Amino acid sequence: MRSKFHILSLFAAVAALIGTASAAFADGRAEPWQLNFQAPATPVMEQVVNLHDILLYISFAVSIFVLALLILVVLRFNRKSNPTPSKRSHHTMLEVAWTVAPILILVVIAIPSFRLIYFEDKVEEADLTIKAVGHQWYWSYEYPDNGNFGFVSNLLEGDALPEGGHRLLEVDNRVVVPVGQTVRLLITSEDVLHSFAMPSFGVKMDAVPGRLNETWFRVEKPGVYYGQCSEICGIRHGFMPIVIEARAEGEFNNWVTEAQGKFARVDQDGDVRVALASR
Ligand SMILES: [Cu+2]
To answer: Which residue segments constitute the domains of the chain, with CATH numbers given?
Structure first.
């Protein structure tokens, strides 16, 4: 009983340590020596973290149970303590039990897991739509609901990286979204497979040429959130970051007005290549 208590308190201590470590990261990017996930910025990521925590407890319990059985076997059934082994080779009840128990565990895991998959999948009602297009090697974005403008977002590197900027993560044109509003995100590619990944949003979706993939997010608090392409897409795969800035609605509207003047319109026959041409 005593050793059980020790193991539990050790586990609780590790969990608390990881918890405090992750609470410090509120800025939407990975930190050096980070443990655990980035702080969730959307309802989807909150639920991803919750499911992960549940799974961690279940897998911890299973591991401890298996370890206990192994130790029992080593101690009780070695040659010295069990010189004449049993010749038994089958035990129906035992075999049923070790087949049914894992099935039940998987069913218990499947219920919240499927619920989350459907929650992540699509939104019925979105406040605005943004289209992200992967290119070798940068992203471009379109705002069909806000005047149909589009722009290219390129990595800032070398001397272009601003003072205090995060290396390999900063871009010239950030995606700006309104806080608290539901954004439908359409993702595609112009050339090869890319993947739009934003860890603190719980969004990771492939950008496939000729296909339009859909997902969504709703950022709960203002901030700057960093992501990267997560599909090996060529020599500069590691140099096409994603930066999303969540602003209050008024500031977002100001940005839209400014952006409509600054960026090219995405016309019906063209796409963001119009914007590219003026680059
Ligand atoms: Cu890519």
So the answer is: 2-121 (1.10.287.90), 128-277 (2.60.40.420)
